[in-house]
Amino acid sequence: MVWFVAVLVSISLWLHPAFAAAQAIRFQPQGAAAAGQGNAFSAQADDASAIHFNPAGLTQAEGIQILGGTALMGGSVKVKTQAGADVRGDFGGSAVFPPPSHGYFSANLGAVGWRSLSDITVGIGLTTPYGLNTRYPTDGPFNSASTSSMLPLIDIKPTIAYKLSDQLAFGLSADVYTFASFLGEGHVEQRLVWPGGSGIPAGASVEFQGKGTGAGFTASMLYTPMRNEQGKPLASIGLIYTSQARLPLDGALWANGAKVTDASTAIVLPQIYRGAVALWPVRDSRHEWKLELDVEYVDWKSVRNFDLQFPQGGTLPGPQQWNTVPVIAVGTEYKRMDPDWLSRWDVAVRAGYTRTENPIPDTTFNPGIASFTANTLSVGAGVLCKDGGRFLGMLACGGAESSRLAPKAVGFDLAYQAWIYEPRTITANLNPTVNGHYRTSIHLGILSFSLRY
Questions:
Q1: 3-state SS string for the chain
Q2: Which has more pLDDT, 298 or 259?
Q3: Which residues of 243-279 are buried (b: 16+ CB within 10 A; e: fewer)?
Q4: pLDDT 10s digits, 28-55
Q5: What domains appear along the chain, each with residue ranges and CATH number?
Q6: Residue 18: pLDDT over 70
Q7: What is the pLDDT of residue 391?
Q8: CA angle centred on 161, ends 157 and 163, rounded to 5°
């Protein structure tokens, strides 16, 4: 079995779960209203997407709310290798499929009949917070590092929020990370082209597949020291902590469709510390203007290795040594309520900027992750049809014309983000074929649809 050991030693040089996103393997846009503000939403957090951004903010989601949406995105990675070759990669095609999506359901217990529990709101969310696809030519110069990779991970978030007073609320959600067959292949997958030797023919497609389930939690607080005469916040402070989670992956190594051996590893998802401040310089019955600043510290330093474990008892190291990095987001929203030209509607316009630092050092960089420092520009808009209004001129949004099953409000939000990555030159990589100059860009459109009862 000398060839088997040689194969495993070789694989240890390239086997890093390599999945692209805005920051390492993290995908931040999880709702169009937030995305339009550069994801600066954790101190506002006033709809069902608070389940993701700040669970304590769920106490502001009145009645029963359903919010869902998806992101359409595409982009490319352009590489000039150290040897002078040009390579172009993408994120699974002209548009990523299946698209990253989000869904939330929340219910205030007072609104469903338990009036004595009106300070408690519960909910559940389903998001795709980590991982996308990457593809490179199978005949490219670094095909021994990566030709494609996929991490179709979902996060199931049961959530409870408690309003202690008009100034203070707390929230707690579980984070259950797992895989599902309706999203991609339902497992981690990374492929490369075997260079030859060790009993595997040159040009063979070698891949790792694995799946598993891990868990963590998110705890948060929302403090609102100032409100206007209508009781709406004029200033809010959000503090959010997301715990580290270890996601074990059990699977196998394959070559040309034939199983080589069972194998297992683990992905460590980072703990995240987030603080946010929102101010409303203008907030009355007709106009609202909000400014928000969110600052995060993402503890990627917990990603020290992707060691492979084998049933024969062996362990092969896969050093990573990632770094903790800050993420800074600023955003604004201007909202007009009941304008003369659209009675019984709210209309909002939004803009934002996010700065995300690169956490992955040159030595362990993998083209499948394509991790760069990113500057994200965002714009967005949204409408909310309320009691007495008509959605699309047909559906009554609550009021006397509505049935008991009709929503009290119907909302639609749309955002666009341009992820502008700073160019990066990789040197001294563990796999020399990866060394070179990398440039990439991503364009993303995200939409959300909401019903409020």
A1: CHHHHHHHHHHCCCCCCCCCCCECCECCCCCHHHHCCCCCCCCCCCCCCHHHHCHHHHHHCCCEEEEEEEEEEEEEEEEEECCCCEEEEECCCCCCCCCCEEEEEEEECCCCCCHHHCCEEEEEEEECCECCEEECCCCCCCCCCCCEEECCEEEEEEEEEEECCCCEEEEEEEEEEEECCCCCCCCEEEEEECCCECCECCCCEEEEEEECCEEEEEEEEEEEEEECCCCCEEEEEEEEEECCEEEEEEEEEEECCEEEEEEEEEEEECCEEEEEEEEEEEECCCEEEEEEEEEEEECHHHCCECCEECCCCCEECCECCCCCEEEEEEEEEEEEECCCCCCCEEEEEEEEEEEECCCCCHHHCCCCCCCCCEEEEEEEEEEEECCCCEECCCEECCCCCCCCCCCCEEEEEEEEEEEEECCEEECCCCCHHHCEEEEEEEEEEEEEEEEEC
A2: 298
A3: eebebebebebbbeeeebbebbbbbbbbbbebebbbb
A4: 899 999 999 999 999 999 999 999 999 9
A5: 2-452 (2.40.160.60)
A6: no
A7: 67
A8: 170
Residue pair 149/134 in contact (Cβ under 8 Å)? The answer is yes
Alpha carbon 244 to its chain's center: 15
Token representation of residue 183: 């999203």
> Tell me, what amino acid is at 402?
S
Q: Could you identify the residue written with the tokens 């007073």? A: 165
Q: Percentage of residues in the chain with pLDDT exceeding 70?
A: 88
pLDDT, averaged across the chain: 85
